[in-house]
Amino acid sequence: MEPQKVELGTVAQLKREGKPITMVTAYDCPTARIVDAAGVDTVLVGDSAANVVLGYPDTIPISMDEMIHHTRAVARGIRRALLIGDMPFMSYNVSTEQAVANAGRFLKEGGAKAVKVEGGGWVAGCVAAMVRAGIPVVGHLGLTPQTAGMLGGYRVQGRTAESAKKILDDALGLQEAGAFMLVLECVPDRLGTLISRQLQIPVIGIGAGSGTDGQVLVFHDLVGIQAGFTPKFVKRYLDAGSQMQQAVESYCREVRQRSFPAAEHSFPISEEEFAALGEALQGEE
Ligand code: KIV
Q: What are phi and psi of 22, to 5 degrees?
C-alpha cells in the first residue's frame, strides 16, 4: 500500500500541533529510498550537493542542470516525503522571470514539489512571483552559504540585536510573500525559538537550537561519510565512512587472495558442455 504523502498542509499541521518536522538532504536515488523509508517528513536536494558529492569547494559552481539531474534521481526514490529542490546560486538572482522559469524546472523536470531560495529583502519579490505562478517556496535565512562571503564567512548570524531583528524582519517578509516554510541556519538558539514563535509557517533549524519547528541535517554529515571540517551543529549518528572504507579494504584483500568471488558468486557450466567446448577447441587446432 502506498504511504500517505507529506503535503504542504501536513507540515503546517505538524507546526500547529507542536510536532517537530524532520528534513534530511539527499542527492541520489538509493539515499532517497533510505531517508524516505526511515520516515523523514521532507527531503531537500540541497545545493550542498556541490561540495558534498560533486567535489566543488562550495555551493557556488553547481548549475541548474546539475541540480535538476540530482533532483530527478531523488524523486525516483521518494514515496512519502515532501521533495524540495534547492535553487542554485544565480538561478534566481538575475530577474524575477529567470527565477520563476528556473523554479518551474524543478517541478516540471525534477519532480520536486517545492523549491528553496536563500536570502531575504529583494528575494521576497521572487518568492511572491513564484508563489503567484503556483510554485511552493521555502525560504532560507541566517547563514546563507551562497552569499557567505557577504556575511563575513561561514559564521553564526544574528548575534547582535540589530542583525537578529533584520533576520526576523526578513523572515516575516518571506512569510508575507507566501513562503510556506523557512530554513534558519546558524543563528543563536534563542533567536531560533523567537523566530519560530513569531512565524505562522514552520521554521526548520540547522544550528538554530532545539526550539525551532523542525531540524535539517545533511545526510552525509548525519551518517559520517563527509570528510573534512564538521560544523558544531552536526551530530553524527553513524561512522559509515569508516565502515565503507573497511568494506572496500576487505574486498581488495579477498580479490588479491582469490577468496572472492567464491562458488556462490559464480555461474556453473555443466561437465558435458565444458567437455564439448574442449573438444570443439581441439578440433580447431
Ligand atoms: O544545501 C543544503 O544542504 C542546505 C541545508 C543545509 C539546509 O541548504
A: -105, 140
